[in-house]
Structure formats: structure tokens, C-alpha cells
Specification:
This protein has helices spanning 6-9, 32-38, 55-71; strands at residues 13-18, 25-30, 75-82, 88-99, 105-116. It has 122 residues and is α+β, with helices and mostly antiparallel strands. It has three helices and five strands; from the N terminus they run αββααβββ. It is globular and about 40 Å long. The model has no long low-confidence stretch (mean pLDDT 84). The protein has a five-stranded antiparallel sheet with strand order 2-1-5-4-3, covered by helices on one side. The longest helix is centred in the middle third of the chain and has 17 residues, at 55-71. The protein starts with 5 loop residues before the first helix and ends in a 6-residue tail after the last strand. It has one domain: Beta-Lactamase.
């Protein structure tokens, strides 16, 4: 990785942490591009607060974060979605475990990018 590229991808990054004594996670950072993609500012929010009544979004995030915590390995994501009825997107991402110098996973670093499913939507 070239750290000179970090400013280019910073808007697509997220940092999360597990809530102690819970199976929930809190977003410590949710990049501006992610806010634009999702239409929701999630910095500081718990996963349980994601997406309003959209339980699928919460369930997907919960499953990915739990898998990273359980396996202590990155999880790669590819999922479909849409912002409205005419703009269909494909989400590509990764969530990776972070430690604080010990063996336990303290935080998670992720990145999410999108592309359109058809040429006419580009």
C-alpha cells in the first residue's frame, strides 16, 4: 500500500468498534463518500441505528462485522443495491480487523466503493 493514496480513498473508509458487553458495533468514522452513497451520516451510530426500518442493511453489516471478529480475518463484500428505482449499484468492500497491539480485535477498518450495474447508468 502506498500511503500517499490514502487521501484519495479516505472518503470511502470506515472505522468501527465493538460495543463492550454487546453484539453491536459503533461507527467511529464513516467517510463522506459513504454518507453520500447511503444517504445517511453514520459516524457515531450503532449498527442497530442504521437504515431506519431497513433491517436488511443492519443484518448485512452485523453479519460482516461478526465474521471479522470471529475469524480475525478480512471479509470481502460484493452486494447489489440502489439509491432509487433507476440507479442500481454494485458495492465492493472490505472490512479488516485491527488490534491495539494485543490479541483481541479492538476496531475494524473498512472501505466501500460502488459502480453501476449497466453502462447506461454511468
Amino acid at each position: 500500500m502506498n500511503f500517499a493514496d490514502v487521501p484519495d480513498i479516505a472518503p470511502n473508509l470506515l472505522v468501527a468498534e465493538r460495543v463492550e458487553g454487546s453484539d453491536d458495533f459503533r461507527m467511529r468514522l464513516f467517510g463522506s463518500a459513504l454518507t453520500q452513497i447511503t444517504g445517511e451520516e453514520r459516524t457515531g451510530k450503532l449498527l442497530q441505528e442504521f437504515g431506519g426500518p431497513d433491517t436488511k442493511t443492519r443484518a448485512r453489516w452485523q453479519a460482516v462485522m461478526a465474521e471479522v471478529a470471529r475469524t480475525q480475518h478480512p471479509v470481502f463484500i460484493k452486494a447489489g443495491g440502489s439509491r432509487d428505482q433507476t440507479s442500481h449499484l454494485v458495492f465492493h468492500g472490505v472490512v479488516m480487523p485491527l488490534t491495539n497491539g494485543g490479541d483481541s480485535i479492538e476496531q475494524f477498518l473498512g472501505a466501500l466503493f460502488t459502480n453501476y450495474t449497466s453502462d447506461e447508468d454511468r
